[in-house]
Amino acid sequence: MPRRPEACAVMFDLDGTLVQTRRASWDVFRTVSDDFGLGLTGPQEYFDLFNGNIFASLEELCRDRADSGQVKKAFMDRLREEYNPAMVPGMVDVIRRLAGHCTLAVVSSNATEVLRRVLVGNGIAYCFSHVFGGDMAPDKAAAIQSFLSDTSSQYGRRCEVAYDETPAGTRPDLETTVLVTDTAGDIRDALGVGIRAVGVAWGMHGADELTDAGAEFVAIWPQELPGHLLGDAATAPAGACALPFPPAPARASCGAGQCHCGCQDRSPQTVRLAEPDPVATRLAAAAAIRRDRRRQAAQAPRTPARSPASARSPASTGSPASATQQSVVPQGHAAAAAELRDAVRRIIAWSEGPGR
Asked: Which domain covers residue 341, as residue numbers?
């Protein structure tokens, strides 16, 4: 088979392609099935719904059982609230490699809010020029058509906020536009529109199902995708795409009681660096200042104390007698001063001890 041309635009499905979804997605839908009495007893029955358009499959499943509109709404609401799957290992690096060469987009049946949570949370939001969520475009074929019909779709993002408007404003070419997905239904939608389709073997459907549906290639590992899509141009990421996103330990937890951003769903072995407590920081700084002042007070030279009698003497006159009286420190007062200095030293030593 002759080699396909290098891809210029790559559209990714989300669930099962970019993120690990088999268990996470079924766990969400199982409660919806139970609530509406849809009768699904296992994940394979749920995966079979993706042989076609998921929303069309739901409508057929709900016939004579429940209102399909309510089921779809319940499913989307639960996805928005609960769904936060992990990325497929290696896919972040693959996306960064492709972003320097291709215009990237996401076409998914999932809610746009979920797409944002996943892409932003994994540091790849600015690798994609467009996202088409199921709440905006339930029909993936229609979403692909929308992408193809817009000349600005060729403008990509190179892992930066701004769009790269270097290419001329032309419509994406069918031979260089590819959908990467894990379901047979998506493969058929892509081919029906006229673009190319590549499958991945780690999602909803197996390699044989994807090949039978018409996939030109089925990747077993994420690292195969850049080589197939770009050929010799599949080099390491460059520019902004080469800058790694801070790993999970460097990102602070949001601290929300009912968090849905994923910060509470990470492995127990993952240590997150929390933001410093501003109150504790201020208290520690104030304690350090107090300790420094006490140290300076203890080390400063002492002015000899005067007796009450000398305080009543005419010291303000500057007479020799008054000067003599100021230089004399009664023995009792000297002992009290020494005892006070000793007490201050003990307090300083205690305050500078461990944990204070």
From this structure: 277-308+328-356
Q: What is the pLDDT of residue 322?
A: 45
Any domain includes 74: no
Q: Output the domain CATH number for residue 170.
A: 3.40.50.1000
**Do residues 121 and 231 share a domain?**
yes
User: What distance in Å separates the CA atoms of residue 162 and residue 158, rounded to the nearest whole number?
Assistant: 8
Which tokens in the block code for residue 20? 């690990």
- How many domains would you assign to the chain? 3
Q: pLDDT grade, residue 235 (50/70/90)? A: confident
Q: Residue-wise over 84-105: b if at least 16 C-beta within 10 A, else e? A: bbebbeebbbbbbbbbbbbbbb
Helices within the chain (DSSP H only): 22-36, 43-48, 54-61, 68-82, 91-99, 112-121, 140-149, 184-193, 207-213, 224-230, 278-299, 308-312, 320-327, 331-351
In this predicted structure, the answer to whether residue 171 has a pLDDT above a threshold of 90 is: no
- pLDDT band for position 146 (cuts 50, 70, 90): very high
Q: What is the pLDDT of residues 6-61, one digit of tens each?
A: 999 999 999 999 998 877 777 888 888 888 888 888 888 887 887 777 778 888 88
225 and 271 in a single domain? The answer is: no
Contact 99, 237 (CB under 8 A): yes
Q: How deeply is 63 buried, as exposed, middle or buried, from its count of CB atoms within 10 A (0-12, 13-18, 19+)?
A: exposed
